[in-house]
Each structure stands twice: as C-alpha cells, then as structure tokens.
C-alpha cells in the first residue's frame, strides 16, 4: 500500500504519522502558538525530526463553531510556510488542509503534494484543481458544516452512511482521472458525529478497507477522547496515542496527530508486534 503524491511515493505498508501544523490563531488545542512563519517552520522541522511522514498545514480551524477565514488571510498564513519548508528541501510531503480551491491551487504551486479536504472536494472547482495536478488527496466525511455539525448529528447506520459517502467521492475522483493510489479516505471523527457515532466508527474502521484506498484517521486530542477520559484537551496525550494504536491495529495507514514523537514510537511497537 502506498500513496502517490506529487514527487513522492509514500510507503504505507506500515502505519505512518501525519503531523499537524496549525497556522491558525484559533485552533482549539494549540491555537496561537504557531502563527508566525518562523515558529511554524521550526515546529514543522521538529515534527519531521520526531518521525512525521507527512506534514499537514492548515490555515483555517475546522473545529465546531470556528469562524470562517477569508481567502486572502488563509493564503497569507499557509503559503509562506509551505514556501519556507520547500526551500529547505524537506524529505516529507506537505499536505494542505483546506476546502478552498484557490488555496489548494496556490499550495500545490508552492510545493504541497497532498490536498487534505474536510469537504472531500465538493466545493465548486476543487476537484478540477486536484485532477489537473499530480497531488494526492484526502477525502473526509463530514455531516453538515463546521458551524452546525455538532448540533444534532443523526444517522440510521453511521458506518454504512460514511462508507457510501466515501465510496461515492472516491468514484467521482476516479472518473475525474485521479487514480486510486492518489486517494486517502477518512471517516472524519468529530465532524457531525456524537460520542456513540465516533465509537461505532472506530470499532468498525477495518470495514472501510474494502474501499481499496489507504485510510487516514484523525482522533488526536478530539472531544470523544475527552468524553471517554474526562480530560480536557491539554491532557489527552495518552488517550490520543491509544486511539492511534487501536486505529493502526484495525488497518489505518496514516494517523493525523499533534503528538508525533509519542505516536511514532507507539506505532513502531504496533508494527513489530502485530
Ligand atoms: C481532521 C482533519 C481529520 C482530516 C481536522 C482537529 C480538527 N483532516 N482536519 N481528518 N481534523 N483529514 O484536528 O481536531 O480528522 S481539524
């Protein structure tokens, strides 16, 4: 199993880590710490040293009720960081966490190799931007929008509905000429899901392997882990590592995490003992 993305062929035969690099001032867990270009670059280099196989750069928080960021501001946040990292010839692909086609295009031009889209390329023009590039793409499931998604999410069968959505979006990508080895699929933990929905999905993650694309899982520091442990966001490291381990045991290929060093080490044990 591998992912083709830009100039990279990412080996996913063992579970790998995508390190989160937020350059938003209001991200819920490390908001405000990495808004300056220099400190964002320094953090990114640390994540690579800690073993991240991908860096995921985001300039707009998608937490529930987050305020949308205007296009120009999002560009100003993320593009200089991508350019600075590309100029340093880093050895890992850069992923851009955005749903805006103009940000996707600018990020790819600046050297990003993966588009991580919580709206699964449903924004007008987004599919065309990715299809016209050689970037990889992560298609994530979300019910509703970040403004309203946690109000009262409802499913008849959460696994079936998430799986049908991901299959349909994958098929639209294939029809647009984006080959299956450029596509990551993600059930979107916390995006329009209750605690019960998140847990049901986590338990049946392996069912998504039928879709024949590598799976990305983002559970790091998320509220479901707070609900399970009673810990607030600053104290969810152990829970996050446990969630990454369980996900990898069920077949997840890429774990999107804040705590790269701890997760990379835990995943080495998964790989050795599985
Ligand atoms: C995810 C994401 C996720 C993907 C965020 C947070 C909220 N992208 N972006 N999957 N979550 N693909 O990190 O808690 O789960 S932002």
From TrEMBL:
Pfam families: Pterin_bind
Residue ranges of domain Pterin-binding in the record: 15-268
GO molecular function, one term: dihydropteroate synthase activity
Catalysed reactions listed for this entry: (7,8-dihydropterin-6-yl)methyl diphosphate + 4-aminobenzoate = 7,8-dihydropteroate + diphosphate
The enzyme's E.C. designation: 2.5.1.15
Keywords: Folate biosynthesis, Magnesium, Metal-binding, Transferase
Highest rank taxon of the organism: Bacteria
Top-tier EC class: transferase
Cofactor: Mg(2+)
Functional pathway: Cofactor biosynthesis; tetrahydrofolate biosynthesis; 7,8-dihydrofolate from 2-amino-4-hydroxy-6-hydroxymethyl-7,8-dihydropteridine diphosphate and 4-aminobenzoate: step 1/2
Protein family membership: Belongs to the DHPS family.
Function: Catalyzes the condensation of para-aminobenzoate (pABA) with 6-hydroxymethyl-7,8-dihydropterin diphosphate (DHPt-PP) to form 7,8-dihydropteroate (H2Pte), the immediate precursor of folate derivatives.
Protein name, UniProt field: Dihydropteroate synthase
Species this protein is from: Methylophilus luteus
């Amino acid at each position: 199993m591998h992912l083709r993305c830009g100039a990279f062929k990412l080996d996913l035969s063992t579970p790998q880590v995508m390190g989160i690099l937020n350059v938003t001032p209001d991200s819920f867990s490390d908001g405000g710490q990495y808004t300056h270009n220099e400190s964002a670059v320094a953090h990114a280099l640390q994540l690579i040293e800690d073993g991240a196989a991908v860096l995921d750069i985001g300039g707009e928080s998608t937490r529930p009720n987050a305020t949308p960021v205007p296009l120009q501001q999002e560009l100003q946040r993320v593009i200089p960081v991508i350019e600075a990292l590309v100029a340093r010839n880093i050895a890992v692909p850069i992923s851009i966490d955005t749903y805006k086609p103009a940000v996707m295009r600018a990020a790819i031009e600046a050297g990003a190799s993966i588009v991580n889209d919580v709206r699964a390329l449903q924004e007008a023009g987004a599919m065309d931007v990715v299809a016209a590039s050689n970037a990889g793409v992560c298609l994530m499931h979300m019910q509703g929008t970040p403004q309203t998604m946690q109000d009262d999410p409802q499913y008849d069968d959460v696994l079936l509905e998430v799986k049908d959505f991901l299959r349909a979006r994958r098929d639209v990508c294939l029809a647009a000429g984006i080959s299956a080895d450029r596509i990551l699929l993600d059930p979107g933990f916390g995006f329009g899901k209750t605690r019960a929905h998140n847990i049901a999905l986590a338990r049946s993650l392996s069912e998504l392997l039928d879709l024949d694309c590598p799976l990305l899982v983002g559970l790091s520091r998320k509220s479901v882990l707070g609900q399970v442990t009673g810990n607030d966001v600053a104290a969810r490291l152990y829970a996050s590592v446990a969630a990454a381990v369980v996900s990898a045991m069920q077949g997840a290929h890429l774990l999107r995490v804040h705590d790269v060093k701890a997760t990379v080490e835990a995943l080495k044990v998964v790989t050795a003992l599985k």
